[in-house]
Design brief:
Radius of gyration: 21 Å
CATH class of the largest domain: Alpha Beta
Pfam families: ADH_N (PF08240), ADH_zinc_N (PF00107)
Family: Belongs to the zinc-containing alcohol dehydrogenase family. Class-III subfamily.
Mean pLDDT: 95
Number of helices: 11
Distance between the termini: 43 Å
Number of domains: 2
CATH superfamily of the largest domain: Medium-chain alcohol dehydrogenases, catalytic domain
Protein name: alcohol dehydrogenase
Catalytic activity: a secondary alcohol + NAD(+) = a ketone + NADH + H(+); a primary alcohol + NAD(+) = an aldehyde + NADH + H(+)
Keywords: Metal-binding, NAD, Oxidoreductase, Zinc
Length: 387
């Protein structure tokens, strides 16, 4: 069993502010908490800013496990290393880092392969604790344990993250842009770039034009797709989609007797080369699969459906049509090697991160960011911890 004892002598607990989810669906409570020192293979990070992802909203509402309270949500962030536990050599105090829910241990067969980003040593899960030991580094002032979220928990001034979930980055990158690569933008861009490997001149169909779907469009644009078809029931999203490279739009509610797959097949003369499901609905995965081109069409599942959802495909479609269905967790990207590439793309003006940020708020106004997302008025709200 690994020795997870605390690092060097002299490290103490920190008292700081955090936005704690005390009851599902109710406003977060900003309160003082205690953050323990990092144990072996862990770092304690001072969060500079964090952004709000739809997954935070999903788990904020969740009443049954894996929803759990009290909990510190948040998983898109950037910060500075405040202290390190033992056996941490990759970063040091003062380094700027991006935490991610996906581990990249650099040691297991998956992490050493260019075929997968799914770490087998520290696999992804919705655990309420740290990945190696399952315990928490957070307590409230009464000594009650506060649970972690997606191995990050960024809605706090200080957090503790495993070194496998931390990527060192250039501190010159604006933090209110770099934090977006902690989850959403990397997931969407990576799905087009890494998972699908969209080729120049290809045709792409995207089901759902939320922030993830728009990030897929951005990735497809960067890859050189000639046609990017956005599918969404909200017509207001169509104008926004143009900024991300979407060239054509389909509203399923205005097709009369036709289904979406029929329309896409007609529009593309046989089906799209790549179809991305970014909503998290089994029925849409099947619709996407139907409208991807026979012979080489790929359907990439990006959206997170409810637990237990099943896909139902005709074996004829799979065998006789030569189509592929692929999952894409974190866009198929390896955090430690691919996030720096994406940041370079931003610096070179290839990846346009600015257009994802629609609002910026102070930590005290974090519940305002939740309301903006609930009302459909924001893509990404950046929350500054000390502005």
């Amino acid at each position: 069993m690994e020795d997870n004892s605390s690092a060097a002598t002299g490290l103490h607990s920190i008292r700081c502010r955090a936005a704690v989810c005390r009851k599902p669906g109710e406003p977060l409570v900003i309160e003082e908490i205690i953050v323990a020192p990092p144990m072996a293979h862990e770092v304690r990070i001072r969060i500079i800013c964090t952004s709000l992802c739809h997954s935070d909203l999903t788990f904020w509402k969740m009443k049954d496990f894996p929803g759990i309270v009290p909990r510190i949500l948040g998983h898109e962030a950037i910060g500075v290393v405040e202290s390190v536990g033992k056996d941490v050599n990759e970063v040091k105090k003062g380094d700027t880092v991006i935490p991610t829910f996906m581990a990249d241990c650099g040691e297991c067969e998956d992490c050493l392969s260019n075929k997968s980003n799914l770490c087998s040593k520290l696999p992804f899960s919705v655990s309420p604790g740290m990945p190696r030991c399952g315990t928490s580094r957070f307590t409230d002032l009464n000594g009650e344990v506060i649970h972690h979220f997606l191995f990050v928990s960024s809605f706090t001034e200080y957090t503790v993250v495993d070194i496998a979930n931390v990527t060192k980055v250039d501190p010159a990158i604006p933090p209110n842009r770099a934090c977006l690569l902690s989850c959403g933008v990397t997931t969407g861009v990576g799905a087009a770039w890494r998972t699908a490997n969209v080729e120049k001149g290809s045709t792409v169909a995207i089901f759902g034009l939320g922030s993830i779907g728009l990030a897929v469009a951005e990735g497809a644009r960067i890859c050189g797709a000639s046609r990017i078809i956005g599918i969404d029931v909200n017509p207001d999203k169509f104008e926004t989609g143009k900024k991300f490279g979407v060239t054509e739009f389909v509203n399923p509610r205005s097709l009369g007797d036709k289904c979406v797959s029929q329309v896409i097949i007609e529009m593309t003369g046989g089906g799209a080369d790549y179809c991305f499901e970014c909503v998290g609905m089994a029925s849409l995965v099947q619709e996407a699969f139907t409208c991807c081109r026979q012979g080489w069409g790929k359907t990439i599942v990006v959206g997170v459906d409810k637990p237990g959802s099943l896909l139902n495909f005709s074996s004829y479609e799979v065998l006789h049509r030569g189509k592929t269905v692929m999952g894409s967790l974190f866009g198929g990207t390896k955090p430690k090697s691919d996030i720096p590439i994406l940041l370079n793309w931003y610096t070179d003006k290839k990846l346009e991160l600015d257009k994802f940020v629609t609002h910026e708020v102070s930590f005290e106004d974090i519940n305002k960011a939740f309301n903006l997302l609930i009302e459909g008025k924001s893509l990404r709200s950046v929350i500054w911890m000390n502005n």
